[in-house]
Amino acid sequence: MKVMVGGTFDPLHAGHRKLLSRSFELAGSSGEVIIGLTTDDFASAKVHPVHPYDKRLENITSFIREQGYTATWKVEPLADRYGSALDADFDILVVSEETFPVAVEINELRRERGRKKVDLYEVSCVLAEDGRRISSTRIYRGEIDRQGRLLK
Known about the structure:
Blueprint: E1 2-7, H1 14-27, E2 32-38, H2 40-43, H3 53-67, E3 72-78, E4 92-96, H4 100-112, E5 119-123, H5 136-140
Parallel strand pairs: 1-2, 1-4, 2-3, 4-5
Organism: Methanoculleus thermophilus
Keywords: ATP-binding, Coenzyme A biosynthesis, Cytoplasm, Nucleotide-binding, Nucleotidyltransferase, Transferase
Catalytic activity: (R)-4'-phosphopantetheine + ATP + H(+) = 3'-dephospho-CoA + diphosphate
C-alpha cells in the first residue's frame, strides 16, 4: 500500500506519533509512506511559533528510525493544504479528526481531475490527562507536555 499523511508536526507529540505510526501500519512492511511536511511559509500561519522545516524534518526522521519501520518512506514539502495529494498515485490518505474535511475535499478535487478516489483513514485524537485533545497549541501555552501530562 502507498499511504500519504501530512502536517506541521511541531512539536512532535503523542497525536503526531499516532498519526505517523498508523500510516506505517497501513502501508505494511513492503509499502510506502509519503509524509507531507508543511513548508516554513505555510506553517507561519499557525497561531504559535513553529520550528524551521529542517528541524521538524530531523524530528520526524529520528522518530521513524527509532520505530524501526521497514516501509519505504520520504518526506516532501507541503506548501498548501493539498500538496501532491491531488495528482499523486496512492491508496490511502491518513488524517486526524480535525483534518478529515480537507481529505474529503481532496477526494472531490481528485474526482474532478479524473483521478481515482483514495481511501480515507481517520485517526482519533490522543487525549491528555484532562480528557481534552493533545495539541501543539496547548503544548506551546504550557498547559501540557508532548505526552499529554498536565503542567498547570
